[in-house]
Amino acid sequence: MRATEVPAIVGAFLFEPTPYADERGFFCRTFDADVVRSVGLDPNAFIQDSLSRSARGVLRGLHLRSGAGEAKLVRCSYGKIFDVVVDLRPDSPTYRNVASFELSDETQTTLYIPAGCAHGFQALTETADTSYRIDRAHDPAEDVTIAFDDPELAVPWPLPATSMSQRDREAPSLAEVLKQREA
């Protein structure tokens, strides 16, 4: 497994496994504490694992946590997703940058998203399972959602959104969220 920095988002990394493939299929390591530690992250900081299953076109996001934020490792364990990160850390040199990735079960690549970044994804296959490893317990009172179609962000979603939560459909713009954070 190797770790690669994401240039558009300071502190974000892609963890790419080295699969062993043969006539049976493949085997790969999807988490390696030593590799995580090698880029300055504490592998023991992750306290919760979650899984979502989405149908093709489902869009989830853009989500972030207020307060201390939430760092996470995200991987598409089955199917394929279009994954998006927005740096919303005011002191970051990549503040307001948007980066997108295609994560799939073929590569099993894991994306590390630093606390203070918004995250969202869209399922590109009929079924897409997305695994999350999160560094703090979820508190719904800290949930923040930003409009997926905010023109300021101009995220190039590859498919029309076939389904999303009411919260995501009614999300405010980035400007509104930033104004609320300043208040």
From TrEMBL:
Transmembrane segments: none annotated. Residues 159-183 are annotated as: Disordered. Pathway: Carbohydrate biosynthesis; dTDP-L-rhamnose biosynthesis. It catalyses: dTDP-4-dehydro-6-deoxy-alpha-D-glucose = dTDP-4-dehydro-beta-L-rhamnose. Keywords: Isomerase. Homodimer. This is dTDP-4-dehydrorhamnose 3,5-epimerase. It comes from Streptomyces tauricus. The lineage of its organism: Bacteria, Bacillati, Actinomycetota, Actinomycetes, Kitasatosporales.
